[in-house]
Amino acid sequence: MTYSDPILTVQAISKRFMGRGGCVDVGFDLWPGEVLGIVGESGSGKTTLLNCLSGRTTPDEGVVLYRGRDGEMADLHAMSEPRRRLLMRTDWGIVHQNPRDGLRFGVSAGANIGERLMAVGARHYGAIRGTAADWLGRVEIDGLRIDDRPSTFSGGMQQRLQIARNLVNGPRLVFMDEPTGGLDVSVQARLLDLLRRLVREMHLACVIVTHDLGVARLLAHRLMVMKEGRVIESGLTDQVLDDPHHPYTQLLVSSVLPA
Amino acid sequence: MTAATLRLSAQALCKTFTLHVQGGVSIPVFNDLSFEAHAGRCVALAGPSGAGKSTLLRSLYGNYLPDSGHIRLWHRKDWVDLTQAQARTILEIRRETLGHVSQFLRAVPRVSALDVVAEPLLALGVDEESARRRAAELLARLNLPERLWNLAPATFSGGEQQRVNVARGFAPNYPILLLDEPTASLDAKNRRVVVDLIAEAKSHGAALVGIFHDQEVRDAVADDIFEVESYKEPVA
Fold first, then answer.
1. Which residues does chain A have within 8 Å of residue B17's beta carbon, measured at their own beta carbons?
2. Searching chain A, which residue's CA lies closest to the CA of residue B15?
3. Domain hosting residue A120, numbered range
């Protein structure tokens, strides 16, 4: 794989629900190490698009091509279900807005991380526990909490645990849906700092859906602005936010209260 | 100034802001503007407030998108047009070729002053120790008290933040460096440090473009003056 090869190529994706909603004719390329932010208000089709990209929803039209570790491009929605599931375990991470959707609350924090390692074949208990402890440290959770259940964690800790669970396998592509939504601002800052560092260190490709333009500015290299299912403006993050051209983007940017 | 020293060439740039949220008002900034920046020289953008100096500087950084025209930069031994480049190419250019000292520091929560300055070096692949040494050297030169180095600059005074910003911009030796009022909130002593840093960058062969309201600083650093005001759209 060369520097110029995208890891994800999305061509003319459309998904409508009963003729309305969803997303229409969305296409882009994503490269390793690149964070793409998708912004827009509720109902603009951001989450539907994310679901199509990550294989959880089948689009009506369009293709999603993923370049595997072997350098070959594979059509995500044309591949077999077992192969797609394998990819999700080995190559991808999905961080949900609500930690309840991304964690198992019935088992310990350590098990939440270790489970992902076992899914790709790890069997040695000591090694799994060691890696889990290491990852708790990397996401700034006290190692003494390794046997505690996520339900005893604060919202910010749950979100950091979810990130550890998703990154422990060394994925190449991570999808995040409002990862800082519902968190206190002070907790958000810590999480953003952590995400920035991990994305850089692991050279992750990342698609992040958010309605928070501050989060987008901090994390995303480039942005797509969505309205009524369509991408109405895209480009370098600071250019889109500082010199927005589309009336809707201007409205979004000018509606943010300065802190 | 020859073709061999040319580092940045802006050709026939036009920029008009259209404010859709405010009744579609059009604000023309400049029209058919062309200029060049050469290695080892500093161009000062001149003109009264509202002339479009900052808009031009931001366009040269890819932060604003001109309506037409070209901005060609010498990057990796080739000419790249910033107005046509992909986002990731612009980021690569900013990492390796094009530095920018903005007027205000955009502080990231929880990141220390030392790390803010070291960050562009780390992005270039410099090892952590050398990057932090270079960052410390610059902060010391700009007289930022050492007790502040490990604090996040969000709570710093305007002058302290500006010194962090200047140190960050001068940390890598960018071949092209844009400066937006780098001395606006600095005292005489630190203004002189910035003047020295600019002189050193020139001697390294950097091409600089800047806005300097301070006449003394401008006289000390500028080799050429470019009047932005004269490119206002002619009133029809």
1. 243
2. A243
3. 101-170
